[in-house]
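Q: Predict the bound structure with 2-deoxy-2-amino glucitol-6-phosphate.
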Amino acid sequence: MCGIIGKAGVGNVTPELLEGLGKLEYRGYDSAGIAVLRNGRPERVRAVGKIANLRDALDKTPLEACVGVGHTRWATHGAPSEANAHPHNSPDGKFTLVHNGIIENADALKRTVLADDKEWESETDTEVVAHLLQKFYTGDVVKALAETQKHLKGSYALGILCADYPDTIFAAALGSPLIAASVEDGSCIASDVGAIGGTLSEVYKIENREICMLTRDEIRFYTPDGEPCEKATVTVVPDALSMDKGGYEHYMLYEIMQQSSAVRKTLEPLLAGDFDLGFDDAFVRDGLKEIRVVACGSAYHTGLAAQLLFERFCRVPCRAEIASEFRYADPVVDEGTLTVFVSQSGETADTLAALRLAKERGAKVLSIVNVRGSAIASESDAVVYTNAGREIAVATTKAYSAQLAVFYALAVRFAAARGTIDEARRAELTHELAALPDKIQEAIDRAEAPARKLAETMAATQDIFFIGRRLDFAASMEASLKMKEISYINSQAYAAGELKHGTISLVEQGTPVVSIAMDGGMSDKTHSNMSEVRARGALTVAVTGDKNADAFADADVLLTMPDTDEWFTCSLAVIPMQLLSYYTAKNRGCDIDKPKNLAKSVTVE
Ligand code: AGP
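A: Predicted complex:
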């Protein structure tokens, strides 16, 4: 996952590289490093942990030069140590490079082409690239890079310094995002356009083994074989990468509080009928045979809700699929299949690979993406953007809510097109959908204090269970993921009726079991399951709508949310759960915005 940046500029580039790395920290924060070329000699400073540690290290050992590259790491090969931190050097010190991606055949290369190389500084896959460059270098870096790329399998975005070219950065990429751009005082590369300061609108996307050479005055391109070529810029509308926390202690809490507005901004165009889906209602009515929603993590959880919406309400078969499974499952999809890829970042490697597979097999490809211009958005037949604004906390909240909102709007539209709802019901649902942002705000206002109080008890627990049926089960899955990813408490979500088929044996005196029962049609059943765990000593927490509050009055802790239509309950059920996770993690002293072992963008499989 990792983020890379580089600049060939006029003055000292280190402060800019450091600032850019701060903006790339969402891609990983196991270690960070910067290397510069000073008078043709590479110098580097690396530090384990977050960018703040690198900043401290640079205070002690300043780097000053007008050409440099930087890296923030999410460890794939080798522990998060200084030795494994990028930039990495070739044994002769001529090459210094940063890498995002995975060299899948690194071990094989060490056994074959690089069998004579005995000196390895790190346990990383990246170091083989530095060794290959040294091996193939005869004075021309572009040629050496072309030859090196022939041996590499996997994915990479590379930023390379060569001691013989003191004012130049070389770059190449395959399957990992990398842009190059001219700025006022030089040329830059970065994993994300947002990491480069200023207001960029024209950038080069380096792809498919293309090679790029940047000096402060020019950017040149070469084919994978090392022949000079022309390349056009693309226009980008960079998402404002504001680092503002809105006065809150953590981005996560700020983003929870922004959910009403994120959902409103996402729904506005959709409620006004502004859909560009790449197909029309006639296809939805007559051509659509099946929907597959493919995604990872929380985005996959929105698929669990979508699956119910499309099947129950639109009467079209729908399956939510985990992207890392879908891509290797040899799925049967064709022109009658609508595949929907959901991603906040638009960069998730498994989701992107699954998308390419679906496209190859002739399925229609629609994506629901938050980051504009991202790879998933660019490669889809059509995109519906969630207008949640950039999300920085690793644990998603507002993007998840905005994704759900898109599915609601799609489901209403599909149901109308397929005639599974009449005009009156469509108007009713549309009206309720328009009211959803206000209800989300009300849910936040109502849940904040009780969630904070309940979190005092939760902080000391070892295990938590979340149970629910139908859409409440989809919400339980998300609630459970939120809890475990930021509080590190072992939490599990179960379809409420499934608990007694094994998992109930884990319930002991005082084990918290959260029953989500927003779906009126299922609340009696879920209440029975709550009673079953209560009989075994569980601490029962119930989340339900106002209408059902009396039925759940026997819960140890009752959180009531505003009522909404059965179709949209997931959006309100998750709000108290997000707040509960947040305050539980806070009470446990966890690093809420950057939980251990995680990164915001998962760009490796
Ligand atoms: C959720 O809180 C996660 N951090 C994670 O599961 C995330 O939803 C998943 O990695 C998918 O990311 P994407 O939406 O950027 O594709």
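A: The chain has 17 helices and 25 strands.
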